[in-house]
Amino acid sequence: MNKVVSLVCGIIFGIGLVISEMINPEKVLGFLNIFRDWDPSLAFVMIGALVISTPIFHIFKNKNKPLFSTNFSVPTIKEIDKKLIIGSVFFGAGWGLIGLCPGPAITSIALLNMSSAIFVASMFSGFYIASKVN
Amino acid sequence: MNIVNFTPISALLGGLLIGFSVALFFILNGRMIGISGIASNFLVSKDRRVDNFLFLFGLILGPLVYKLISGKEINISISNSVILLIIAGVLVGFGTKLSSGCTSGHGISGISRFSLRSIIATITFMLIGILTVLIKGVL
After folding, report:
1. Which of A82, A96, B13, B73 is most buried, by CB atoms within 10 Å?
2. By the 8 A CB rule, do A25 and A99 touch?
């Protein structure tokens, strides 16, 4: 059953990225362009997501177990370290260069766009390099 | 600063769907969604590989299901500079793996949990993203 959930949640998430236009790099770059022609829309994507995910997380986190899995599993690291900051700086730079982050990048493969494909292949190379460095 | 192309309704609606997906995944499967984590683990780890694959496959089905239901086309505008795409892709992959999260993992799931790590990561990648766009516009 949890496999069906994975697939369905992926589809819902992907549709959310399409409707909110986060899948469109031009829209994302407009959001990051706050000093000139600013498109604040994507702040509303975040607000929309958080108003649902935040209460649900806090209501269910203390329950015994999820419906289709043996236990809840959330990240336990608390440390603010160099990896967190350096990684976020690299990510922000790449995000600002093209306007794609991992979710929209993978989702945009559906559009059979050559630029998206090159970006996604490079992103997976980046995952691989980082996993070897660690 | 001028406000342009502002689409708060569709942004909010899409955001609600994303939040719903995160909430559903947590209640049913017990994990908080982070797409860089799901994608990079799919690549390098055997653990839950099928689940991770199905989620990523679902993401790609998303636009197709949207087109089928709405009958609308999806238009995006993206750079066609191969060198820029490669540099940015590697930076995004490397950076999100190193910091264990991206816009979804830190920006949505982490902030939902009130994780200080995720709040700091989100502020950092947002500020650097803004700075990058600013510098790119000047060059």
Report:
1. A96
2. yes
- CA-based nearest residue in chain B for residue A42: B11
Phi first, then psi: give them for residue B34, nearest 5 degrees.
Answer: -140, 115
Q: Which two tokens stand for residue A91?
A: 């990510």
d(CA A52, CA A119): 30
Rounded-to-integer distance, Cα B50 and Cα B72, Å? 31
DSSP state letter for A73: B
Which A-chain residues 54-73 have CB contacts (< 8 A) with chain B? 54, 56-57, 60-61, 65-73
Is the pTM here over 0.90, yes or no?
Answer: yes
Listing DSSP states for chain B in one string gives -EE-S--HHHHHHHHHHHHHHHHHHHHHH-B---HHHHHHHHHH--TTHHHHHHHHHHHHHHHHHHHHHH-----------HHHHHHHHHHHHHHHHHTT--TTIIIIIIHHTT-HHHHHHHHHHHHHHHHHHHHHHH-
The β-bridge partners of B77 are none
